[in-house]
Each structure stands twice: as C-alpha cells, then as structure tokens.
Amino acid sequence: MELTIRVAGSFDFSLHPDFQRAYQNFSPSPKCYSVDLSETSYLDSAALGMLLLLRDHCYGDGSRAEAQRVELVNPRPHVANILAASNFDRIFTIR
Predict the structure, then answer these.
(1) What is the pTM assigned to this prediction?
(2) Which pLDDT band holds residue 64 (cuts at 50, 70, 90)?
(3) Is residue 75 reached through a cis peptide bond, with omega within 30 degrees of 0 on the bond before it?
(4) Rounded to the nearest 10 degrees, what angle do helices 16-23 and 45-59 cross at?
C-alpha cells in the first residue's frame, strides 16, 4: 500500500497538525509514503522538519524488520532548489 500526501500552497508550520494526521494511525502501515509537492509554492524550515518527522515515523525505533520508503515527488524548481540546498536529496528519494 502507498500513501500519497499532497501539499498545496505554502508548506509551513501552519500545516503541522494536518500533515501529521495525514500519515499517523494507519493499519497496516503503508510500504511507501509519497509527498506530492507539485502544487507546493513555498517551503520553509518547519516543513523540512515535518518531512524529517515523517521519516522518523517510518523508521520508528529501529525494531521494524523493514522501514517504509518516503519519496518526495514532483517538486517545482524553487522547492527542488530548497530541498537540494538542505541536502534532502541525500536523505529522501526525490523524483
């Protein structure tokens, strides 16, 4: 199962509760979490932190046999530049 989370407009701290609710409490857990950034016009440091929290959620405490994948898909050029400048291309699959 794959879960896609679409972020439209500004991806900032105001989305924190909604973003967190979007990926928590799934049973069974998705094998892949895909964050669709095609409609994201702005990304700030809080959004980067939320992406790291999603990654931590997927890796859990390390006791899971297999960690779920997190992919960031279709970022606009400006958003892709922010992700690259933050070295998120080394942490996440960006396609």
Answers:
(1) 0.89
(2) low
(3) no
(4) 20
Residue with tokens 């996440």, as numbered in its chain: 92
SS3 state of residue 26: coil
Amino acid at the residue 76: R
DSSP, collapsed to helix, strand or coil, labels residue 12 as: coil
Cα–Cα distance for residue pair 91/16, rounded to 1 Å: 20
Domains of the chain: 2-94 (3.30.750.24)
Q: What's the confidence (pLDDT) of residue 1?
A: 84
Q: Give the other-Cβ count within 10 Å of 8's Cβ.
A: 12
User: What ranges in 15-68 are assigned the alpha helix state H?
Assistant: 16-23, 45-59
